[in-house]
Each structure stands twice: as C-alpha cells, then as structure tokens.
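Tokens for MFS transporter. Go.
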Amino acid sequence: MTQNSTDQFFKNPVLGHPAGLFVLFFTEMWERFSFYGMRSLLILFLTTSAVDGGWEWTRENASALFGSYVGLVYLSTMLGGYFADKVIGFRWAIVLGATLMTLGHASMALETHFSIYLGLVLLVFGNGFFKPNMTSIVSEMYKDRPEKKDGAYTLFYMGVNAGAFFGILLCGYLGEKVGWSYGFGLAGIFMFFGTLQFWLSQNIFGDIGLKPNADSKAKAEASDTDKRNPFTPIQLVVIAITCLLGLLWILNDPASKISGGKVNVFGFLGENGNSIAIVTALSLFIGLLMYRFTQYSQITKEKLIAVTFFAFLTIFFWAIFEQSPNSLTIFANDYTNRVLEGNWSVTFLIINSLITILPLAIITWVLYLLFKQTFKNYAIANIILSISFVIIWAIAIWMLAKDYYTAGYLSLSDDTLSLLKIDKVTMPLTEVPATWFSTLNSLFIITLAPLFSKWWESKYNPNANLKYGIGMGLLALGMACVAFGANGILPGAKTASVSMIWLILVYLFHTMAELCISPVGLSYVSKLVPARMIAFMFGVWYLAVAIGMKGAGMFGENIDTIANEHGLSYFFWMLTIISLVVAAFSIIMGPIIKKLMHGVR
C-alpha cells in the first residue's frame, strides 16, 4: 500500500481503528454524558410544581425555551467551526468549549433563575466550540481511508450514545429521585473529566488540529486547487442581517411567550412579527446559498448541492426525532403507567441491572484495550479516565441498591442507609423514572451500532438516498406505535395509564432510524466537502440540525392545543405522516442526487 500522511494512526490499532479515535470516543462520551444528562431533566424541571422544586411553567413555555436552547447549541457550531479553522485550531476550540460547558453545568446546579439562564448561555457557546471540531479531527484522521469513514463515524457515534445513556440514566435518576441540583451538578463533574483526558492525550493526533500558522495554511492551499469564492462586502452584509434576524428570532420566540408579550423585539411588525422575521432571514440565506453555488467549480458545486439536500432532509428528521426529551418525556411522565408490582417489578429491576452493568462493562473493556496501546505514553490521561470510570461504577451500583431496597427486595440497616444517603421507606414501590425511557435510544445504539457499521462496510451498503428513506420510514413506524398506544386517551385528558411497551417500541425504531441518518450524514459531509471548508461546513450542517431542533420545540409547544382539540394520538399521527412523506421524497430523488455526488458512496 502506498504510504500517506495518515498511516501513522493505523500502526497500532484498537478494534481495527486508530487509538486516537478512542481518545475522541471517551472525550465525546463524557461531553454527551453532561449534555444529555442535563437535557433529560430540563423539561421536567421547568414543568414540575414549585412544591417539588421546579419552576411550574406551562408545557408551551417550557418547549419554547427548550427548542431555542437546543437550536442555539447547534447554531453556535458555526462560530466554533470558523474560529477553529481560522484562529485557534481544533484542539484549543475543544478545550475552550469543554471548559465553558463545565462552568455552565456548575452554574445550573445552583438552581437560581440567574444561574440557570447563565448556565444555558455557557452551554450554548461551549457546545459551539466543542462539537464541530471533534468530528473535524475524525475526518482528518481518515482523509486517506475513505472506505473506513462510515465505520469510524458509527463507532464514534457509539461513544456519543454511551455517554448519553449513562448521562440520562444517572443524571436523570439523581434529578428525579434525589434533587435537581444533583443531576445538573453530576453532568458538570464528568465534563471536567473529559476536558482533562483530551488535553493530556492530544499529542496522539500528531499535527491534526494544531493552531493554524503560515506553513499549515500554505500547505492546505497547495493541496486544494479548487476555485476560490471569497465573500463580497454585499454578501457579508446579507450574512450579518440573516444572522441577526435568526438570532433575535430564536431568542425572542421563548422570551415573548414566557413574558406574556411584555418582551417582544419584533412587536413593531405586528402580531406575526416573529414569523415575518424568520421567513425574511431564511429567504436571504437560501438566496445567498444558491448564488454562491454558481461561483464554484462544477464538481464542487454539485457536491455542495448534494450536501444541502441531505441537510434539508436532516431538518425534518431532528424535528421529529427530538420529541424524545420533549413530548415523549411528557407522555412518559403524565400518560404512561410507570408503577410496577409483583413479577413486573422484579423483571424491571433485573433488566435495569443488566442494561446498566453490561454496557458499562463493555465500555470498560474498550477502555482496557485503549490502555494497552496508550498507557506508556499517556499515563496521567489514562489514570484520570480510570478514576472517572470508578466513580461511574460507584454511582451505578448505588442507584441499583437504592432501587432494590425501595422495591422491598434488599434489606439495609439504618446505619447503612445513612451511610449511603438513602431515605428509609415503609411501603415497597417500583416506579420507573420518566427519563429512563430516553436511555433506551442510547442502549439500542450501543447494541446495534456495530451491526450497522458492518452493514455500511459490506457490499450491501445502500446508497445515500435509500439510507435516508429507510431512516425516515423507521421514524414513521416509531411514531405510529405511540400514536396507536395513545388512541384511547380522550381529548383534554391530562393523565392516563398507557402501557410502557409503546414507548419501548418508539425508541427501538427511532434508534434504527438514527443509525441510518445521523452518523451517515456526518460521513457524507466529510466525503463531499473540500478539506479547507470542512469545519465550517460541519457548522452549516449543524445549522440544519439547529433548525430541526427548534422545529422539535415548536412541535412540542402545540401538543396541548392539539391534544385538547383532537386527542393526543392525533399529534403523533401528524408526525408519522410527515416522516413518510420525507422518506418517499428521499427515495424518489435518488438518481438525481447520485449524479451530483460524482461517485461518492
């Protein structure tokens, strides 16, 4: 095989991939632990009664704030991608982002109105610097091994979901069962561990991600012969107007609703001021994008059009998929029978023990494989990583012990209860936390990701449009399950006792949909986009995700209105139909998009 600049990373592989991939795996794992751990609690915290420590907001207001928060998280990646590309490099961007997120979680743990809002702001900017640059490093490591990129991104995505699983499981449990501040605080602790581990292991990436200098810029320009297309002053003005309108809209939307109209930046435009602002911003952006496509070389232009097509489909995917921490969590909390008795109690406790211990054991085994390859050169980083795993094991075992004791299957003395900080109970009870169902998504990904990775690397690997079509079809199937389960809930009902099986099926089908779309989408960006534009275009990709996230919040805002008029089932059937339409559109457009991709699979 011809030697190339990335061969060094494949000399001592772990599970067939560079050891550096697994450094990123664990760094991203702790970041996702913190992000999803906090996110799983946010809607519940905002809507819980003041007596139970929440803010007692309406579902509409909570969804509006949640949608803007997660939208801004992904929107900020454009800023982080730009600074990484042009100023500070991938590595410093990741460290800066991780530090901001650590401070953000610590602020939220204080639970005052000011500290919660400050924490959300810090988390938005932290994610912006962190998220696009992790995937950019993966892309650079595999730039000479395109055939292994799909598998690498799927394994990387497995690390993402390992963190999400344990974050939701443990932060969600502590937040619901012990106290909100404990859930928010735990998220910050592991973000701090992830920061240290990455910083101490960064030399494993060679020259990738260093601060740009004159030599690196000259080398990048020499390797990229594509036609340049600098922004003109008029285009920069259009971008500034678009960004300003979009940012003001995403902030003003929840602010105007939460304040009852007292705060409304676009009030001077009338009753539909918010809609006028965002439509104007999107029109300007789409017009500029279409014009700039005409300025690139033909092949680059067509590849960018293909990326834009997939980004468009991604908007609909995330708008529906992200009902998980929103309407699906509300469904779990208010409309699902979560109290288990007798054999069902025992069954749940055993299953919960297995899905906690087995994934943790598997990830610990991956950690051991990484140790064997890297401990000699990165001892301190590995020790810090091992300490974090000791803490996770301790919290997981404590959680299981508390559940078995509360259910009446474990006897503990008063002294032991005091030592373990477990409240004494007199009546056995097994109640599944509402956040527990969200862990199923991550659990299924940990289980299924290797199978999908092998599928993408086999001769049966479907084309891009078919992957998206399959993914959206599975998304529709999941929503159809919960819609069917909610059929018996009358319009206007605030509570119900629907079987848990419908939520379990939703997360199974939605997980398979996510594996078809999310990591594969990231892989296509890295394959189709010129190297000099990679971090920024990942930012553009996350712009599409941001629109989808805000769309998820807007769907969630209307759940009460639709449920009161037509019934809760009607809401989920609407999402089912939208998913099927997008699936069909993706498959129909297959031949056209295949030509635009110029042989990229």
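The longest strand covers residues 339-340.
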